[in-house]
């Protein structure tokens, strides 16, 4: 249609398309049924692992309330969109016709602004109350310092004479309030124990904290929940919730100075390989690990001597295997100590010369 024709056509009343072929009651009915099904599905799905802290219950309830409040919103909007596309779409032969004129509807607009606003303020208030409630300071709280680094967690317990006790596994006495003080040596990490439902970022240079009271015995995974580098997915540890007596004896054992390496350096090296998380990044047949973040030690160390391996542990950037980058932490020399590095290098040298 040319411009002239169009302006001519617009002088008279414009022909309208036939009105809706369906009414809003039908749409409302579909919306209600879909919302009920959606809420039922949302509540039936088992979203979380077993709950192992006192904080878990109010947080899981909060989650359920959010599902009940948000599913109808999502479903309602989807139903209106899909319904309108199907029922009110332009049919063949209607190309020249217009829909009924719309002049807005103040009442409707007030309603659809007010309802979400009330919903939002209500849910935020509720969530805020739950948060302040689970973070309330409690008597007899034990503070544990959690240090994240690429790609491992270390836990520091208050020991005797103000000295800290370091551990690679997180041990917690049951029913005792814990305050985690989170720190990072390098980049952002996120200390998350899904079974406790709590998580927070660890930020270099800032102390962040959260509280939790474990209330179920068992072993629970600890996960880093912030993309922090190549080994992010391997940055895992275990939280062991045990009885007060078990915890006390474990802590006493952990506080003892490490036993001097025994004669057979080979087996000791294997222990060091496991306890320092080397297998999180490296494949080593003898240790049964198959990670691919770093080079396979079976391959790259096959023709290297103990001295080379020692250098690679203490100064990982000195020589980098083809196809890999300089991402191995530089502090293994410091962490293992000279005896540890010797034992580990000896072990690695021995077990990689098989073929
Ligand atoms: Cu640390 Cu991801």
Fill in the keyword field for this structure.
single chain, 355 residues, alpha+beta, five-stranded mixed sheet, 12 strands, 41% helix, disordered N terminus, binds dinuclear copper ion
Give your account of this protein's structure:
This protein has 355 residues and is an alpha+beta fold. Helix content is 41%, strand content 18%. It has a five-stranded mixed β-sheet. Strands 4-10-9-6-7 form a five-stranded mixed β-sheet, with helices on one face. Strand 6 and strand 7 (198-202) form a beta hairpin. Bound molecules: dinuclear copper ion. Dinuclear copper ion is lined by residues 148, 151, 189, 224, 226-228, 232, 235.
The portion of residues forming beta strands comes to: 15-25%
CA radius of gyration? 31 Å
Distance between the termini: 82 Å
Query: Can you count the helices?
Result: 9
Biggest sheet strand order reads 3-2-1-5-8
Helical coverage, percent range:
40-55%
Largest sheet: 5 strands, mixed
Structural class by helix and strand composition: alpha+beta
Task: Give a topology summary.
Elements: H1 3-9, H2 24-44, H3 56-87, H4 106-134, E1 142-149, E2 152-158, E3 164-167, E4 170-173, E5 178-184, E6 189-193, E7 198-202, E8 208-212, E9 218-224, E10 236-242, H5 244-255, H6 265-275, E11 283-284, E12 289-290, H7 297-300, H8 306-314, H9 332-351
Parallel strand pairs: 1-5, 4-10
Antiparallel strand pairs: 1-2, 2-3, 5-8, 6-7, 6-9, 9-10, 11-12
Helix pairs in contact: 2-3, 3-4, 6-9, 8-9
The structure holds dinuclear copper ion.
The site of dinuclear copper ion has 9 residues, from loops.
């Amino acid at each position: 249609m040319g411009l002239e024709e169009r302006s001519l056509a617009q002088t008279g009343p414009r022909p309208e398309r036939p009105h809706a072929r369906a009414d809003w009651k039908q749409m409302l009915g579909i919306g209600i049924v879909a919302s009920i099904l959606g809420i039922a599905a949302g509540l039936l799905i088992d979203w979380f692992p077993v709950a192992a802290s006192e904080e878990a219950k109010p947080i899981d309830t909060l989650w359920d309330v959010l599902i009940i409040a948000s599913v109808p919103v999502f479903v309602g909007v989807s139903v209106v969109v899909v319904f309108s596309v199907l029922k009110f779409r332009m049919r063949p032969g209607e190309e020249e016709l217009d829909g009924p004129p719309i002049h807005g509807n103040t009442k409707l607009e007030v309603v659809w602004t007010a309802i979400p606003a009330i919903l939002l303020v209500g849910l935020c208030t509720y969530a805020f109350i739950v948060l302040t409630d689970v973070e309330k300071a409690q008597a007899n709280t034990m503070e544990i310092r959690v240090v994240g680094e690429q790609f491992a967690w270390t836990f520091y317990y208050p020991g005797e004479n103000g000295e800290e006790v370091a551990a690679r596994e997180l041990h917690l006495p049951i029913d005792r309030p814990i305050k985690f003080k989170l720190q990072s040596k390098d980049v952002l990490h996120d200390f998350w124990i899904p079974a406790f439902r709590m998580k927070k970022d660890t930020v270099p240079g800032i102390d962040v904290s959260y509280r939790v009271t474990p209330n179920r015995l068992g072993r629970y995974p600890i996960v880093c929940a912030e993309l922090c580098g190549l080994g992010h997915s391997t940055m895992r540890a275990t939280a062991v919730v045990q009885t007060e007596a078990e915890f006390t004896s474990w802590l006493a054992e952990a506080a003892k100075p490490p036993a001097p390496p025994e004669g057979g350096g080979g087996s000791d090296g294997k222990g060091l390989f496991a306890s320092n998380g080397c297998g999180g990044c490296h494949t080593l047949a003898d240790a049964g690990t198959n990670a691919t973040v770093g080079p396979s030690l079976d391959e790259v160390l096959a023709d290297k001597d103990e001295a080379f391996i020692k250098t690679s542990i203490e100064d990982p950037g000195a020589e980098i295997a083809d196809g890999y980058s300089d991402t191995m932490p530089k502090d293994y020399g410091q962490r293992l100590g000279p005896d540890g590095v010797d034992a580990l290098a000896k072990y690695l040298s021995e077990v990689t010369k098989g073929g």
